[in-house]
Design brief:
Elements: H1 4-20, E1 25-27, E2 39-49, E3 58-68, H2 74-88, E4 98-110, E5 117-128
Parallel strand pairs: 1-2
Antiparallel strand pairs: 2-3, 3-5, 4-5
C-alpha cells in the first residue's frame, strides 16, 4: 500500500502536468539555471494522522510553487495558481478517498537572484480516508 502523502504528491504532480505541461513542472529539486519561466515546483508535503486503531486517515498538505521572471506579468502567476487549484480539486481514486479541504495562495517578490522574480505559493490541504 502506498503512503498517503506520496499518493497525493503523485496525483497532484500528474494533475498539474496535465494543465501546465510536463516540461514546466519540477519536483525533488529546483530546475537548473537557464530553465525558461514560468515554471512550477512541487515542494513540501506533510501528513497528520487522525487517532484511530484500525484505519489510516487524516490530512495531507502540499506546497506548490510557481516562479516567473517577469514581475509585470503577475496575472500569469495568478492564473497558473488558479489552474493548479482547479485541477487538484477534482482528484479522485487511488488507495485512499481524497477530499480537498482548502487552499491558500500568496504571491511574493523574490530578490534572491540578479533578476527580480515573482514567487507564487499554493498551499493545498486534503483529508484522506
Amino acid at each position: 500500500m502506498m503512503d498517503p502523502q506520496q499518493e497525493l504528491f503523485t496525483k497532484v504532480k500528474l494533475a498539474v502536468e496535465a494543465v501546465i505541461g510536463k516540461e514546466n513542472v519540477y519536483d525533488g529539486f529546483l530546475p537548473p539555471e537557464g530553465t525558461p519561466y514560468p515554471f512550477v515546483y512541487l515542494g513540501d508535503a506533510y501528513q497528520v494522522d487522525d487517532a484511530n486503531k484500525s484505519a489510516i486517515f487524516g490530512t495531507v498538505s502540499l506546497t506548490v510553487h510557481v516562479w516567473h521572471n517577469t514581475p509585470e506579468e503577475r496575472g500569469t502567476v495568478s492564473s497558473l495558481m488558479l489552474k493548479i487549484k482547479e485541477a487538484v480539486m477534482q482528484l479522485k481514486g487511488g488507495h485512499y478517498a481524497w477530499d480537498y479541504r482548502n487552499g491558500q495562495t500568496r504571491i511574493l517578490t523574490d530578490n534572491t537572484t540578479k533578476q527580480p522574480l515573482l514567487h507564487g505559493v499554493v498551499e493545498l490541504h486534503f483529508h484522506f480516508s
